[in-house]
Specification:
Enzyme class: hydrolase
Shape: globular
Number of strands: 23
Distance between the termini: 79 Å
Structural class: alpha+beta
Keywords: Dipeptidase, Hydrolase, Protease
GO molecular function: cysteine-type exopeptidase activity; dipeptidase activity
Radius of gyration: 25 Å
Oligomer: single chain
Number of domains: 3
InterPro entries: Peptidase_C69
Largest sheet: 7 strands, antiparallel
Pfam family, one: Peptidase_C69
Number of helices: 13
Helix content: 25-40%
């Protein structure tokens, strides 16, 4: 009975976590084995919401008696949807990675509104993710679990793109329900070719797909016939485009969503310039083709093989160096702030305008890079590089998938969005980022310096930690291995949080009152008598001064000469 109560509490907490994310707020990249320098696979995920509190949840492996049922709660509302049979044994899950190094992320693309509601459906997108992680040992098994569940119990969500990985394969699965009076979903899953990368960000990405290649493409048997029945498609099967039929791209889909995929690709692939106009929202239709003619490809081959830090870098972007660069227009203010406070659109004189939606955004609750490594035992091979708050200024710390305890700084219930906690990483990182937003171009270098020092240390330590853990594992000390990995992960995360609190104090002292105090290597300079050196007062840039004068005319103009 105690276990059942604990499980209900856990599921309820997760339901709250997912319900507050909202739709259209996430970004994923998918990195194949052949595209990485060490042969690992990776997926990324940023969970973005203005009401999401960043935590790392954990579900241990469990055994259940025959006939047990699993309660399913809708992730967006916490509403009870129904029950499905429970397995005799479930996998342990740390965040979005299970003990077999299988990871799943998602982004909501919505799609045709008529397909959203399905009365009696039990499986929503969030439940699909965590049930699959508890049941699957490979990415293919996860796809099978997810698609079988919606076929049997119905699909209770809008259109979703899922990133699914294991140590050898990476897939994108796109799914949308069949609407009222129907049951289940239509879907397509494609394996990302070895050596390539993919991504999705709240816009369906799969267009045409091979129909006789089950090693690399799986799909619902009625994915095309269902569209024909609805009158949405009447062409040849080979011309069928999942995205263009079930979730057509428009200005918003390109500018707010696919533009983020463009930006991430642009950081590692030099051939993205040709898609910049599309990223700006200029969706073109060529000739008689009713589908857009200038869409980005589903996958690209990076210019070089990627490290885990390269992939972290893909998650840190404000469109720098592109036509959407958020540091270049007047909205960045005098300190080149690459963020725009919401709402996402605004009107002036009846015309509508946009605030860019970048990968790095202020409202991120948590993000991760899930790395799976086939040459190591599963508990050691899987690392969830986990961070909270804004991806640009977060620090990704390694959480091995074999851990059996969550660090205090990431624990569910250690504070919430309305309750400040001194031991919470989410609050420590938000204090730093929100202070840095005030004078961004001056402060962000200090933040990135600490970030780099810590992440470089974590990456440098990884081979030694792997070796020590593998030595324990090979000698038959499996419990000791898991405890070693747990102690290491917990210590690094809690230590990182302490360092971030020190960074907050340093930034406050250095930048208070609009001054910039003099310091060298983190030590503030004093006079011979121990007084602070006179601080720098850099003021504003010349271009911003001109903006002020143009906007105020002679209102601020001095009359006569200054008296001192």
């Amino acid at each position: 009975m105690i276990r059942k109560v604990q499980r209900i509490v856990f599921l309820s907490l997760l339901a709250v976590i997912w319900s507050i994310q909202g739709s259209f707020g996430c970004t994923n990249f998918i990195i194949s084995k052949g595209a990485t320098i060490d042969g690992s696979t990776m997926i990324t995920y940023a969970a973005d919401s203005h009401t999401l509190y960043g935590e790392l949840y954990y579900q241990p492996a469990q055994d259940f008696p025959a006939g047990s049922l699993r309660d399913i709660y809708e992730w967006d509302t916490g509403k009870f949807l129904g029950r499905i049979p429970q397995l005799a044994h479930t996998n342990s899950v740390v965040g979005n990675m299970n003990e077999f190094q299988v990871s799943i992320g998602e982004t909501t693309f919505g799609g045709r509104e008529v397909l959203f509601k399905q009365s009696g459906a039990i499986m929503d997108y969030g439940s699909l993710i965590y049930v699959a992680l508890q049941r699957a040992k490979t990415a293919r098994e996860a796809i099978e679990v997810m698609t079988n569940l919606v076929e049997k119990y119905g699909y209770a969500s809008e259109g979703e793109s899922f990133s699914i990985s294991d140590p050898n394969e990476v897939w994108i699965l796109e799914m949308i329900g069949k609407g009222e009076g129907e049951k289940g979903a239509v879907w397509v899953a494609q394996r990302i070719p070895d050596g390539y990368i993919s991504g999705h960000a709240n816009q369906a990405r799969i267009t045409t797909f091979p129909m006789n290649d089950p090693a690399n493409c799986l799909f619902a048997k009625d994915v095309i016939s269902f569209a024909r029945e609805k009158g949405w498609f009447d062409g040849k099967n080979t011309e069928f485009s999942f995205s263009d039929i079930y979730a057509p791209v428009d200005f918003s889909g390109a500018r707010f969503s696919d533009a983020r995929v463009f930006a991430g690709f642009n950081k590692v692939y030099s051939g993205m310039k040709q898609y910049e106009e599309y990223a700006l929202g200029n969706v073109k239709h060529g000739g008689e083709n009713k589908f857009p003619s200038n869409r980005m490809p589903l996958w690209v081959k990076p210019d070089k093989k990627l490290t885990v830090q390269d992939v972290m870098g893909m998650m840190r972007d404000h469109y720098e160096g592109t036509a959407l660069d958020m540091t270049k227009d007047i909205g960045a203010g005098p300190f080149k702030l690459p963020y725009r406070w919401r709402p996402l659109t605004f009107k002036v004189d009846s015309a509508s305008y946009v605030n860019e939606r970048a990968i790095s955004t202020q409202q991120t609750g948590f993000s991760f890079v899930a790395q799976s490594r086939s040459w190591l035992p599963n508990p050691i091979g899987g690392i969830l590089w986990f961070g909270v708050d804004d991806t640009y200024s977060t620090c990704y710390v390694p959480m091995y998938c074999g851990i059996t305890q969550i660090p205090e700084c990431f624990k569910v219930g250690n504070g919430d969005l309305l309750t400040f906690s001194e031991t919470s990483a989410f609050w420590a990182f938000n204090v730093v980022s929100n202070f840095a937003y005030l004078r961004y171009d001056a402060m962000i270098p200090d933040v990135l310096k600490v970030q780099k020092n810590l992440e470089d240390k974590f990456v440098a330590y990884t081979p030694s930690v792997d070796m020590a853990a593998q030595s324990l594992w090979n000698s038959g000390k499996k419990a000791e291995t898991l405890q070693f990995l747990t102690d290491y992960s917990v210590n690094q995360a809690n230590g990182m949080t302490i360092e971030w609190k020190k960074l907050a104090q340093f930034l406050f002292v250095k930048f208070m009152d609009g001054n910039i105090k003099k310091e060298k290597n983190g030590v503030f300079e004093r006079t011979e008598t121990g007084m602070p050196q006179n601080p720098d007062q850099p003021g504003y840039s010349d271009w911003w001064k001109k903006v002020i004068v143009d906007g105020t005319g002679d209102h601020l103009k001095m009359l006569g000469e200054p008296s001192h």
